[in-house]
Amino acid sequence: MRRFAIRAVLLLLLVGLAGLALASDDETLTGTFVWTNDDGEIGGDLKAVFTPAGDKEWKVAFYFDWEGEPHIWKGTAKGSLTRGKLSGEVTADLGQPVTFAFSGKFKDGSFRGTHRRLRDEGKDRQTGRLTLGR
After folding, report:
1. Using one digit for the tens of pLDDT, what is the confidence trace for 103-120?
2. How far apart are CA 131 and CA 89, in angstroms?
3. CATH 3.65.10.10 holds for 26-133
């Protein structure tokens, strides 16, 4: 009985580890962001983790530091992560939720795009650019 219990536990561990390996379909891209304002430009490193959410649909999380503090902006994206167009929206908690849109396209394995703040009154404000790649 004891031998059976040990084998059952080992089998469950192996199945669990295999499931984790299969569930790890996230795509991580790294690059840079540039924030443009009246005082000039501020930039930094950017990491984007894309989790499949359908055919060419993704959940996305952007990780970056701003003024020495780590930030994570989360949202959704549509498009390819290797070629062609990619766009999406992420929400930042800046005391209140603020939504930013990004769009651009992949060319030669690198994504180049822009980002802008979405405003309720329809007057979006361009806020900068970003690059991503493997």
Report:
1. 999 998 899 999 999 987
2. 16
3. no
